[in-house]
Automatic annotation (TrEMBL):
This is DUF455-domain-containing protein. InterPro entries: DUF455, Ferritin-like_SF, UCP012318. It comes from the Eukaryota. Pfam families: DUF455. Signal peptide: none annotated.
Length: 292
């Protein structure tokens, strides 16, 4: 742990919106994770001011991009410097853990951004905030555990370059809660499920059972819950008139993916994990045809 761990701003935030802004404006990924744990505790233990249902924005605007320090060098998403390798060498395994840890740090910001940016649209739905505070807490845990594991095998967060593609696509959906849910919280989260079994194998086959188990028993099952939350609130926004899961729901979902998701949705898909999140093949099969 850093010497300045205590040095992040723990306050009695008046609203969850204010607390979310605090994380987004904190430059250090490590401190974003620690702050998330503090806020989530306040939110769920019901003893703090955050118990109040006041989650309104109070007119405060959310910055386009969260604060980030320069610890990790950001390069273009197609840079050769981002090649992770097969996991055979320890350097490759460090790179994979670093890459995952970095993605988790953006996932922390994404969870708070959906609360801060769109909370006023679902202000009466306490469960929406419960769900995304829980997602933020999971992502914070993932970031901290992956960084710890990286340190155990001789690396540290900041050792390798990374890209910020996840935020680039977040910005494309900053004007619509429904689009944000579909693109970031369903499509991107589900993509994480697709690649996870292969990543786990890279560690297992090369003798790093500890990293394999961390991914397999903690990160992977919790990511399924994140896709589930994204899909649940997408359906909620469709309203009572929709079939909520019927053909119309799927059609609207696919139209949003076609319009707002940039990049290729490539198989193989992890049908089993996606199905556990309620994200059946109808949601992504035709969308794939559209981009191939
Ligand atoms: Fe995660
Ligand atoms: Fe996630």
């Amino acid at each position: 742990m850093d010497d300045d761990d205590d040095d992040f701003n723990v306050k009695n935030w008046a609203t969850l919106h204010d607390a979310a802004l605090e994380v987004l404006s904190t430059p250090s990924a490590h401190k974003k994770a620690l702050l998330t744990q503090v806020i989530a505790k306040k939110w769920f233990d019901g003893t703090s001011i955050l118990k109040a249902r006041d989650i309104s924005s109070g007119g405060k605007l959310v910055a386009d991009t969260p604060e980030r320090d320069a610890l990790v060098t950001i390069v273009s998403s197609n840079s050769n410097k981002l090649k992770l390798g097969s996991g055979r060498s320890i350097e490759s395994r460090r790179k994979i853990l670093h890459s995952l840890s970095h993605i988790e740090s953006w996932a922390i910001d994404l969870s708070w951004d959906i609360i801060a940016r769109f909370g006023h649209e679902v202000e009466k739905e306490r469960e929406f905030f419960d769900d995304f505070v829980r997602v933020a807490l999971d992502e914070a845990k993932h970031h901290l555990l992956l960084t710890k594991r990286l340190e155990e095998i001789g690396g540290k967060y900041g050792d390798f370059p990374a890209h910020d593609g996840l935020w680039q696509s977040a910005m494309e959906t900053s004007d619509s809660l429904m689009h944000r849910l579909v693109v970031e919280h369903c499509v991107h989260e589900a993509r994480g499920l697709d690649v996870m079994p292969n990543t786990i194998n890279k560690f297992r086959e090369n003798g790093d059972e500890e990293s394999a188990l961390l991914l397999e028993t903690i990160v992977y099952p919790e990511e399924i819950g994140h896709v589930k939350a994204g899909l649940k609130w997408f359906k909620f926004l469709l309203g009572d008139a929709s079939e909520r899961g019927g053909e119309e729901t799927v059609k609207i979902f696919r139209e949003i993916v076609e319009k707002k998701f940039y990049g290729a949705l490539k198989p193989p898909f992890n049908d089993e994990a996606r199905a556990k999140a309620g994200f059946d093949r109808r949601y992504y099969e035709v969308a794939v045809d559209a981009v191939v």
